[in-house]
Design a protein that fits this description.
By secondary structure, this protein is an alpha/beta fold. The chain contains 13 helices and 13 strands. It has helices at about 20-40, 55-65, 90-105, 120-130, 190-200, 200-215, 240-260, 280, 285-300, 305-320, 340-355, 360-365, 365-375, and strands spanning about 10, 15, 45-50, 70-75, 110, 135-140, 145-150, 155, 165-175, 180-185, 215-225, 265-270, 335. The strands form 4 sheets. It has a 7-stranded parallel beta sheet, with helices on both faces. The structure holds nicotinamide-adenine-dinucleotide. The site of nicotinamide-adenine-dinucleotide has 29 residues, from α2, β4, β11 and α8.
């Protein structure tokens, strides 16, 4: 395929292309962080990451493979490159990760397909049986707006809405850099049920049942499912909204799985991670503005973490073999401890109240949010020549 110059195509919180060399450089930087953090701590073993190509899942794939030298199979659903279009960022990330792993003698494999489907579960089971059994670590980091139900083929969509009452929130118009207000109508019972069907625990329990019945889990397996709680300013749209109810369902499933795994020495734990800029979080109304405020405060206090920093900390402090995870009152790991610190959240609440288009440049760092957002797609990565034409047809 001819080489081309790739520039970002962004509207609002959507970016429709990705830069292959930028994604590769971003993955390389994360691998370097992981190798540095993991030196002398090579635990080995086998891992499976579901939702492994971007955000927290990518960080988990990298942490497992390059910090702890585990053999890790990554599952994700990404668009490959075509004649006219670049691939998605997650595709280029996975390709870059697999290439580096090959060079460094780290064993990884990738399955690109719909993790909700029976076919992909079968393919993954087969792959695990041949190359990654028994699994010592399973990470569930799926974030999807849609699920084609594997039993009846029905397409189910999740919604990001409040539950019970309408909710008016400040938000940001990312194309005009303006603070505006939106009112979201409450979800219908059907929308709530659909969101739980997409992002709740049903798919996770199907994965674990299939892996367990196939005898592919090590007795001391650790399952980690990622969740979010966040501060009160985001609760009506997150924790007590449709997505929060789905997360509550996921957390319930994780607890049930914990009870089933414990007798043999396994654990199933929820890790409540901090809010970070990812494709999934940028789509939630109000969250980009929250991140622009909170990340400025965290950065000023020296507390800001990217997903890779947080996941390396999760592995080192809670998840690697031999470590006992410290848990909150509800039995969850809290990686959002820095975000949720009282001094941080008091300032967030104060600035949230005061923020307008005029005060935006002082109270928040919108440019830093946009920089992080572009980085997700391989743009604005240090050392990459964006004037140079690149091959977009990369093999996975
Ligand atoms: P993300 O959008 O960066 O990644 C989602 C991943 O899921 C990608 O690898 C994608 O390919 C994969 N995926 C989506 N649909 C799929 C399908 N049908 N089959 C296979 N793979 C599929 O998301 P993220 O923000 O990193 O979120 C990952 C998890 O972390 C979610 O559970 C989310 O709730 C949780 N979390 C996110 C934040 C945050 O601020 N971003 C905070 C706390 C917890």
């Amino acid at each position: 395929m001819p080489l081309e110059i790739v520039s970002p195509r962004i509207r609002g919180f959507i970016c429709t292309n990705a830069h292959p060399a930028g994604c590769a450089a971003s993955v390389d930087a994360q691998i370097r962080r992981a190798e540095k953090a993991g030196s002398g701590d090579r635990t080995g073993g086998n891992g499976l990451v579901i939702g492994a190509s971007t955000g927290y899942g990518l960080a988990s794939w990298i942490a497992g493979a390059f910090a702890h030298r585990m053999s890790v199979l990554g599952v994700f659903f990404e668009r490959p490159p075509s004649e006219k279009k670049t691939a998605t960022a997650g595709y280029y990330n996975a390709a870059a990760l697999a290439r580096r792993a090959g060079e460094k003698g780290v064993r990884v494999a990738a399955v690109n397909g719909d993790a909700f489907s029976h076919a992909v579960k079968r393919e993954v089971l087969d792959r695990v049986r041949r190359e990654f059994a028994p699994l010592d670590l399973v990470i569930y980091s799926l974030a999807s707006p849609v699920r084609v139900h594997p039993d009846d083929g029905r397409t189910i969509r999740s919604t990001l809405k409040p539950v019970g009452n309408p909710y008016t929130t400040k938000t940001i118009d990312l194309d005009r850099d303006r603070v505006t207000e939106i009112t979201l109508e409450p979800a219908s019972p059907e929308e709530i049920a659909d969101t739980v069907a997409v992002m709740g625990g049903d798919d996770l329990s199907r994965w674990m049942r299939a892996l367990s019945e196939a005898g592919l889990l090590a007795p001391q397996v650790r399952l980690l499912a990622y969740s979010y709680v966040g501060p009160r300013v985001t609760w009506p749209i997150y924790r007590t909204g449709t997505i929060g109810l789905a997360k509550a369902d996921l957390e319930k499933t994780a607890r049930e799985l914990d009870a089933a795994l414990k007798p043999a020495g396994g654990r199933s734990l929820v890790s409540v991670n901090a809010a970070v800029v990812t494709q999934a979080s940028s789509a939630i109304p109000g969250v980009p503005l929250y991140l622009a405020i909170a990340n400025k405060i965290l950065s000023e206090k020296g507390l800001l973490e990217r997903p890779i920093d947080q996941i390396l900390r999760l592995f080192a402090d809670h998840a690697r073999p031999g470590k006992t995870a410290s848990l909150d009152d509800e039995g969850r790991i809290r990686m959002d401890d820095r975000e949720m610190r009282q001094d941080v959240q008091e300032l967030v609440a104060e600035r949230w109240r005061a923020i307008t288009t005029d005060t935006l440049p002082v109270l928040a760092d919108l440019q830093a949010f946009k920089h992080e957002f572009r980085r997700l797609f391989g743009f604005e990565i240090d050392g990459v020549d964006y004037q140079a034409p690149v091959e977009i047809d990369v093999a996975l």
